[in-house]
Design brief:
The complex is a heterodimer of chains A (404) and B (69).
Chain A (H helix, E strand, L loop, with lengths): L6 H13 L2 H4 L1 E12 L5 E7 L2 E7 L16 E11 L4 E11 L4 H16 L16 E6 L4 H13 L4 E6 L7 H13 L5 E6 L4 H4 L5 H9 L4 E5 L7 H5 L2 E3 L2 H8 L3 H40 L1 H44 L1 H6 L4 E3 L17 E6 L2 E6 L12
Parallel strand pairs in A: 3-5, 6-7, 6-8, 8-9, 9-10
Antiparallel strand pairs in A: 1-2, 1-4, 2-3, 4-5, 11-12, 12-13
Chain B lengths: L7 H16 L5 H21 L8 E3 L5 E2 L2
Antiparallel strand pairs in B: 1-2
Helix pairs in contact in B: 1-2
The chains are: A alpha/beta (404), B mainly alpha (69).
Amino acid sequence: MADIYSVSQVNAYIKNLFLRDDRLNYISIRGEVSGCKYHTSGHIYFTLKDADGQLACVMFASMRKGLTFRLMDGVSVVVRGRISVYEQGGRYQLYANEILKDGKGDLFAEFERLKARLEQEGLFDAAHKKPIPAYPKAIGIVTALTGAAIQDMVNIAGRRNPYVQLILCPAGVQGEGAAETIVRGIRRLDAMGLDTIIVGRGGGSVEDLWVFNDERVARAIYECRTPIISAVGHETDFTIADFAADLRAPTPSAAAELAVNEVSLLEGALVDAHAVLFRAMSRRLRDCRNRMNGLSIQLKYLSPAYQLDQKKQRLSDVETRLSGLMKQRLLLKRKELLVLAERMKAKSPLDKLTSGYSYLADEKGRMINSVEKTAPGQKIYASVTDGEITAEVISVRTVNRQNR
Amino acid sequence: MAKKEKTLEAAMEELNQLIARLETDEISLEDSFSLYQEGMKLLKYCNDSIDKVEKKLIVLEEDGGVDGV
């Protein structure tokens, strides 16, 4: 069995389907009004019907400027708005933005036809649209000489950047002949080589704004070489001029904000840029200096003078070691010699003579150290400390001294 | 209308690119010096190009004249 949904889930799902349908979100419907009720809240509830059906409609108080006459039952009208779902009631209905008496309702069809034709012709191409200069010096405005629109723009522009020159070319913004004055204004300002042009007017009824759906105005905007911002009516009003302009502003005030840069921000950015530039340069210099110090140390170690010094130092070290070793060695030898001398001294015959021993020799000077080397009657010579004694051998006797 | 020189936008853009280059290590000290000088010139240009005189609204007249300067 499939999942089970709550009523509100289903309503939300269906509403979402409606929201995703472009056609339902922007639709014009012709019909006859019935059951019209002006609610105290300012909302208007009515039903639109024709021979075969009916459709619930509401116009919220916030949209009331889209209605310029008293709505009554039985009147034939064209309603523009969107169809959506009222979830609490589980009903779909038409949310009206504008209501025109039938006959005038043809304006909408005309609007759509012109829009389609100009779009086809490329008047709305994104590729044609020029960027709005970020830092303008002079801005042209085509709008009515009197009215809130120009006042708002002058105030906002002055507050954001009083150094921007505003040039107003007054134009009619509704009714007969308005389109011509707007076209003339655009061309005149365009010829002045300004940074940006704003063309528009404050809010009003659909009929009031209609001049901005004029083909001549759209073409003048398209042909304008100066970047141009459209600013017609309120947020919800869309005109052909808006599509042709390089940028659409929702209101004249917004256009002033889009066109005029905030001078304090620019000044801040310049101060920042100065600091960044200075920091980058300082860092670079510091790096270079560090690198140079490193290199100079390296260079010092590699220089011939340093190398020579190093070698001299090593030579002297070796010399010191060498002479040290030599001294040590001499000392050692001297000690050995001393020991030898002592030993030699112990063997000295003179010493022996002093202690009473004497050296015996025969007549020919040969050493007599055995009874065998002499005989009785022979002369012998005994050397003592201070001379020599001549004696005669009387007898000899062998004595065994081995076992002493 | 004054003849169009370098726009403030172009100068700001140039300044940003210049700073980015100065922040890399791949340029010689000589180049960085000239970049720095160039940057200071650009800054001066940007500052100078903000014409700090408050402007009054100019209203063009129908006959081509100018009113309310």
